[in-house]
Design goal:
The protein has four domains: about 5-135 and about 170-235, Spore Coat Polysaccharide Biosynthesis Protein SpsA, Chain A (Alpha-Beta Complex), CATH 3.90.550.10; about 290-410, no CATH class; about 425-530, NAD(P)-binding Rossmann-like Domain (Rossmann fold), CATH 3.40.50.720; about 540-655, no CATH class. It is built from 21 helices and 18 strands. It has helices spanning about 20-30, 50-55, 70-80, 100-110, 140-150, 150-155, 190-195, 205-215, 240-260, 260-315, 330-345, 355-375, 385-410, 430-445, 470-480, 495-505, 545-560, 565-570, 575-585, 625-640, 645-655; strands at about 5-15, 35-45, 60-65, 85-90, 95, 115-125, 175, 185, 220-230, 425-430, 450-455, 465-470, 485, 510, 520, 530, 590, 610-615. α14 links the parallel β10 and β11. The longest helix has about 55 residues, at about 260-315. It starts with 5 loop residues before the first strand and ends in a 7-residue tail after the last helix.
Length: about 650
C-alpha cells in the first residue's frame, strides 16, 4: 500500500453512466473543499463517452480507462491500489454528495479511532430513506427473513428486519455490521490489515464481505446519521427481478462458504435454498400478473362479448330460422378468435406503455383480417357467420376502449389516453439558470407542462417567479405539481435533499448540474435513474420495433422454408445460406443488421443487435466506405428503423442471404 500523504481518496467506478458521473463529480468537487483530497475515476470500458467527458471537464481527476469490464470489485481495487489518502472512499457514480458530508466523515473518523469504515444516510431520487444505509450480517435466519419478505412486513423488528437494522433509528449514529458499497469510507490502516475487495463476488456481497472482515480485524463499522447523499438507483438490479434473486443468492452462498463452518454453511445453504424458491415463485407470479393483467382482462371480456353476441344472435337475428350455435362455437371458435386478437394486439404494441388506442385498434383489425383469411379453410361445421366476427371485433374495441379510459382516468384524472400526460413542473433557481434549463427542456423529448420558476431567495420583483424557495411546499400544493427541477448552480445539495425530505415522496425530483446539458433524477430506488437530455431518440431502443424486427426475421425464415427448393437454386453459397437460416431462427443472427464498423469509436452506443446477414450497405451503389461513414449510417438505421426498412433491403439484396 502507498503511504498516505492526503486526507482522502475518492474512488468512483463508472460504466456507461456519463451524465450521472458528471453530476457525482461536480458534487464531490464541492464536498472536498477544505480537504487535501484526490478523485480517481475507474472506467470499465464505457462506450458512452464517459472517459472523454472526464478528461475534458475534470482534468484534475485521475482516470483509469480499462479496455474491458473486470467487474465491480476488480475495478474499485484498481483505484484503491493507487490511492494516496489516509481514508479511501468507494462511491457510486449515481450519487449526489452533500457539501459537508465528506468533511463530517473525515472529522468523525479522526475522532473515532476504533472506526474501521463509515457509511452515511442515503436517500433515493424521491427523498425516501434507503434501508441499505445500515445493515446487519446476513446470518442464516437474517437472510431467510429478508428473502421471504418478513423484513418488509415488520420493518422495525429486530428479529425480522435485522438485515436492515430496522430497530435502530435512522436519524441516530450507530455502530452497525454492514455498510453499503455505494458509499463506504475505509481507514488506510484498516485496508492494510483486511486487504482489498474480494473479486470472487460478481455482484452483491463485496461490501458485506468487506464489512465482515473489518469487524473480524477488531474495528467497528459506523453509520453516520449527520451526513447524507442521494443514491439514485438504490441497488443496480431491480429487486422485483429474478436476476436480483439469483445474484443475491449466489453472493450469500459465496459469503457462507468463505466465513462459516462446514455445518453452518450447509444450514445456510438449506435456509437460503428454501427462501430462494419462495422468493422466486412470488417474483415470477408478481411479474406475470403485472404484465399479463390487462391482456387477461381483455381475453375474458372479449370471450364474454362473443358469448353475449351468440345469445343475442340466436334470440333476435336468427329467430326466424330457429337456428342455434353448437357448443363448438364457444369451445373452439371463440377461443381461437380471442387468441388471434390478443396476439395481434400484442405484436402491434397494444400493451406497450404508454397505452395507445390506435395500436390496440390496429391489432384487432389485423387480427380480424387473419381470422377472415383462415375462415375458408375451416371445416364446414366450424364455419359460422362472418358477421359475428365483425360484430365481435367492434364490441372488443368498444369494451377495451372503455376499460383503458377508466384506468387512465383513475390514474391521471383525464380521458386523454393517446396523449402522454404532461407533468406539471417548476424550475428552482435564478432567472438566468432557469431560462437555460427551460431551453434544455424544449430541446429534449420531455413531455412537460412548465408552470414557472421559483427563486432561491426572496425577490423584490416576483413577476418572473411564482415565489421563493421558502414557499416551495406551498407552491407544490397550490399548483398540484408532479415534478420539481433544481438548478445545482444556485442551490446546494444539502438544501435539495432537505427539500425532497420535507415536501415528500409524492413528487418527482430532478437536478441540473452546473453547465451540464442533462437534467437528472430517478423516481424509485427500484428503477434505474432517468434523465432529460438532448440525446436523439433511437427507434431500435423501443420494445415494439425490436419485437417487430424479430417477428420479421421469423416470418422471412418461414417463407424461405416454404420456398426452400427455389431458394437453394437461386441463392448462391447454399451451405452458408442454410447456416444463416438456422442462426436467424435461433435468434443468433438477424436478416438485416448493422454494417461492420469500429464499434469502440462510436460516439453513441447503439442498441444491440445480433450479427446481420445483410445491412444497408447492400442497397448502396458502392461497397467501400470509411469507418466514420459506416458509423453514421448505422446510427441513422437505428434512429429511423421500421420494418419497411428491412423489407426494402431484403427485397433488393435477397440473393446475398448466403453471405458470411
Amino acid at each position: 500500500m502507498n503511504q498516505p500523504n492526503l486526507q482522502l481518496s475518492v474512488i468512483i467506478l463508472n460504466y456507461n453512466v456519463k451524465y450521472f458521473l458528471e453530476q457525482a463529480l461536480l458534487s464531490v468537487r464541492k464536498a472536498i473543499e477544505g480537504l487535501a483530497a484526490e478523485i480517481i475515476v475507474v472506467d470499465n470500458n464505457s462506450v458512452d463517452g464517459s472517459v472523454a467527458m472526464v478528461r475534458e471537464k475534470f482534468p484534475q481527476v485521475i482516470i483509469i480507462a480499462n479496455q474491458h469490464n473486470p467487474g465491480f470489485a476488480a475495478g474499485n481495487n484498481q483505484g484503491i491500489r493507487i490511492a494516496k489518502g489516509k481514508y479511501v472512499l468507494i462511491l457510486n457514480p449515481d450519487t449526489v454528495t452533500e457539501e459537508a458530508t465528506l468533511r463530517k466523515c473525515v472529522a468523525f473518523m479522526d475522532a473515532t479511532p476504533d472506526a474501521g469504515a463509515l457509511g452515511v444516510q442515503m436517500y433515493d431520487g424521491k427523498g425516501n430513506f434507503l434501508p441499505e444505509s445500515k445493515r446487519g450480517l446476513p446470518m442464516p435466519m437474517v437472510a431467510f427473513y429478508k428473502m421471504i419478505g418478513l423484513s418488509q412486513l415488520f420493518p422495525h423488528s429486530r428479529r425480522f428486519n435485522y438485515y436492515y437494522m430496522g430497530h435502530l433509528p435512522n436519524n441516530e449514529t450507530h455502530a452497525v455490521e454492514v455498510l453499503s458499497g455505494a458509499f463506504m469510507l475505509v481507514r488506510r490502516e484498516t485496508l492494510d490489515k483486511v486487504g482489498l475487495l474480494d473479486e470472487a463476488f460478481f455482484m452483491y456481497g463485496e461490501d458485506i464481505d468487506w464489512s465482515y472482515r473489518i469487524l473480524q480485524a477488531g474495528y467497528k463499522n459506523y453509520y453516520l446519521a449527520s451526513a447524507r447523499i442521494i443514491h439514485y438507483k438504490g441497488e443496480s438490479t431491480k429487486r422485483g427481478s429474478l436476476n436480483y434473486v439469483k445474484m443475491f443468492y449466489q453472493a450469500m452462498l459465496i459469503f457462507a462458504k468463505k466465513h462459516f463452518s462446514a455445518q453452518d454453511a450447509r444450514l445456510y445453504v438449506w435456509g437460503i435454498s428454501i427462501a430462494i424458491y419462495i422468493k422466486a415463485t412470488l417474483t415470477v407470479l408478481q411479474n406475470f400478473l403485472r404484465r399479463a393483467l390487462l391482456p387477461l382482462c381483455d381475453v375474458a371480456l372479449w370471450y364474454m362479448a362473443l358469448w353475449w353476441l351468440k345469445n343475442f344472435w340466436e334470440q333476435n337475428l336468427k329467430s326466424a330460422e330457429r337456428l342455434t350455435y353448437p357448443p363448438e362455437y364457444l369451445s373452439i371458435n371463440a377461443p381461437i378468435y380471442v387468441a388471434i386478437w390478443c396476439l395481434s394486439a400484442y405484436l402491434n404494441g397494444g400493451y406497450d406503455p404508454p397505452q395507445r388506442l390506435s395500436h390496440l385498434v390496429r391489432g384487432l383489425l389485423i387480427g380480424t383480417l387473419l381470422i377472415s383469411a383462415v375462415y375458408g379453410f375451416l371445416p364446414e361445421h366450424l364455419r359460422f357467420s362472418r358477421g359475428m366476427i365483425l360484430a365481435g371485433m367492434v364490441l372488443a374495441i368498444a369494451i377495451s376502449t372503455v376499460v383503458r379510459l377508466l384506468l387512465h382516468f383513475v390514474r391521471h384524472k383525464n380521458f386523454a389516453l393517446d396523449e402522454q400526460p404532461k407533468r406539471r413542473t417548476i424550475i428552482v433557481g435564478d432567472y438566468e439558470e432557469c431560462e437555460r434549463v427551460r431551453s434544455l427542456l424544449l430541446q429534449s423529448t420531455a413531455t412537460l407542462d412548465l408552470i414557472g420558476y421559483v427563486a432561491i431567495e426572496p425577490q423584490q420583483n416576483l413577476q418572473q417567479f411564482l415565489g421563493n424557495s421558502h414557499q416551495l411546499k406551498e407552491i407544490a400544493e397550490i399548483y398540484h405539481l408532479n415534478e420539481i427541477i433544481f438548478c445545482a448552480k444556485n442551490i446546494s445539495s444539502q438544501e435539495i435533499i432537505q427539500f425532497m425530505i420535507d415536501i415528500g415522496q409524492q413528487l418527482d425530483y430532478k437536478i441540473v448540474p452546473q453547465d451540464s446539458w442533462s437534467i437528472i433524477g430517478s423516481n424509485s430506488k427500484y428503477t434505474a435513474g432517468d434523465l432529460y437530455t438532448i440525446d436523439i431518440h433511437l427507434n431500435l431502443n423501443e420494445q415494439r420495433h425490436r419485437r417487430n424486427k424479430r417477428l420479421l426475421d421469423v416470418l422471412v425464415a418461414t417463407v424461405l422454408l416454404v420456398l426452400f427448393p427455389f431458394a437453394l437454386f437461386l441463392i448462391p453459397h447454399r451451405t452458408q445460406f442454410l447456416n444463416n437460416w438456422w442462426q436467424v431462427l435461433l435468434g443468433k443472427k438477424t436478416w438485416v443488421g448493422y454494417a461492420p464498423s469500429t464499434a469502440p469509436t462510436q460516439q453513441k452506443p447503439l442498441p444491440r443487435l445480433p450479427k446481420g446477414v445483410l445491412s444497408f450497405v447492400h442497397q448502396l451503389p458502392q461497397r467501400s466506405y470509411d469507418v466514420l461513414t459506416l458509423q453514421r449510417l448505422n446510427f441513422l438505421y437505428a434512429k429511423d428503423y421500421s420494418m419497411s426498412t428491412d423489407i426494402a433491403i431484403l427485397g433488393s439484396a435477397w440473393r446475398n442471404l448466403g453471405n458470411h
